[in-house]
Specification:
36% helix; 2 domains; alpha+beta; FAD/NAD(P)-binding domain; binds P-hydroxybenzoic acid; 8-stranded mixed sheet; 19 strands; binds 8-demethyl-8-dimethylamino-flavin-adenine-dinucleotide; D-Amino Acid Oxidase, Chain A, domain 2
């Protein structure tokens, strides 16, 4: 079937997914004059309103500025010079800018996506919403094809290269047969809330308590983001609003700090998961972002890792399209280095910050956290890993 108007039947790079990985890649490639078509399963309004990540590394922010999509971010993002580790109510401030040389930024993932979408559409580059990639075929040859459904009709897009930036549940991951996958399932989920209330302070707070992790973050001067560790088997029925607030108050309680309540605008339960595919490429199909790896959210690394992948992938694809395969051949190995670094930080934080319910284990966690938060090497390491600034 012919493609929809404005969308070619053939392109250099077919990108599956308009999340941070797919959109940043498309912007990097557009800058190099490489044509791509981005296919996104969901509607524009859905991807621009889906509440997910919030903490952006300075390297991610620098790249967004470089791509010309930093204007709204610079006007509205909250610059985060420190975060707080709360251990059984004891407050430890980690001055990340002082210790690592750079601040973190708090700016919603959906805002990053909205900025990149607006930029791409304004340039007239093809991006189809509600276009579901069904299969990627012919990846062993020089002209792989994507079969996709748009407006109820099945269509075909032929490309030189296909990139699966379609997240953990997309077709990219299913099509690349990993030699080996590394997984860890946690018995834990995060109950995330978006609350119509001013943040209760200017810092992101990770609170370890014997009742479980409580977290405080923000999205704007009037929107608070909160998280609670809950059992992976829990549903919303287990968490009526009064129980949510009671647990947030208990877990985040500390002298000189009080939690401001407000109407809950959005809630979601997300299971904690760790996953790495040691294969990020099969022939002419490459994976980037959550399609290739998932880190527990305790390190605030998932979106930032997706951006690191496409920073490596864009020049590799440009070279490959010009006939030089060396960078593309090194893609998986190059990415796995930053993936395992981020995994190590995120899993380490996940192990320490979530309560297990076993009093001995949890006392060990509190002691270890205290050791990290109070001694210079631990403080510096936490700050540098959080910001993604590695010496
Ligand atoms: P995405 O964002 O999932 O985008 C994939 C896109 O592909 C589309 N898609 C398809 N399109 C076409 N055809 C198909 N067949 C398709 N199947 C799927 C989807 O609709 C979607 O639009 O993956 P990407 O681009 O790799 O980005 C990864 C990030 O989304 C993710 O890692 C972060 O949200 C993780 N994360 C955080 N990362 C950070 O860096 N900092 C944070 O503060 C942070 N906080 C979080 C988080 C993740 C969380 N959850 C949801 C577990 C907090 C939470 C609660
Ligand atoms: C968020 O603001 O949503 C956020 C911040 C830090 C994390 C995870 C999520 O580790």
């Amino acid at each position: 079937m012919t493609p929809p108007p404005g969308v070619p039947a053939r392109t250099q790079v077919a990108v599956l997914g308009a999340g941070p990985a797919g959109l940043v890649l498309a912007a990097l490639l557009a800058r190099e004059g490489v044509d791509c078509v981005v296919l996104e399963l969901r509607s524009r309004s859905h991807v621009e309103s889906r509440v997910r990540a919030g903490a952006l590394e300075p390297g991610t922010v620098a790249l967004l500025r470089e791509l010309g999509v930093g204007e709204r971010l610079d006007a509205t993002a909250m610059v985060s010079h420190q975060f707080e580790l709360r251990i059984d109510g004891e407050r430890h401030v980690l001055p990340v800018t002082e210790l690592s040389g750079q601040p973190m930024y708090v700016y919603g993932q959906q805002e990053v996506v909205a900025d990149l979408v607006a930029h791409r559409l304004a340039a007239g580059h093809p991006l189809l919403f509600e276009a579901e990639a069904l299969a990627v075929e012919g990846i062993a040859g020089a002209a792989p094809t994507v079969r996709y459904r748009y407006e109820g009709v099945e269509r075909t897009l032929t490309a030189d290269v296909v990139v699966g930036a379609d997240g953990f549940h997309g077709v990219g991951r299913r099509t690349v047969a990993a030699a080996r996958v590394f997984t860890r399932d946690y018995p834990i989920a995060w109950l995330g809330l978006l609350v119509d209330a001013p943040p209760s302070g200017r810092d992101v707070v990770y609170a370890f308590s014997r009742s479980g992790l409580g977290m405080h973050s923000m999205r704007s001067p009037t929107l608070t983001r909160l998280y609670l560790q809950v059992p992976a088997t829990d549903t919303f029925a287990d968490w009526p609003e009064d129980r949510i607030w009671a647990q947030l108050h208990t877990r985040l309680s500390a002298e000189g700090w009080s939690l401001t309540e407000g109407p809950v605008l959005e809630r979601a339960i997300a299971p904690l998961r760790a996953y790495v595919s040691d294969t990020m490429r099969a022939g002419r199909l490459f994976l980037a972002g959550d399609a290739a790896h998932i880190v527990p959210p305790t390190g605030a690394k998932g979106l930032n890792l997706a951006v690191r992948d496409v920073r490596v992938l864009a020049p590799a694809l440009v070279a490959l399209l010009r006939g030089d395969p060396a960078l593309a051949d090194a893609y998986t190995a190059t990415c796995l280095q930053h993936v395992w670094w981020a995994m190590s930080f995120s899993c380490g934080m996940a192990r320490l910050l979530h309560a297990s319910g076993d009093p001995f284990e949890d006392s060990l966690r509190a002691a270890e956290l205290r050791g990290l938060a109070t001694r210079e090497p631990g403080r510096r390491m936490l700050a540098e890993d959080y910001c993604g600034v590695r010496p």
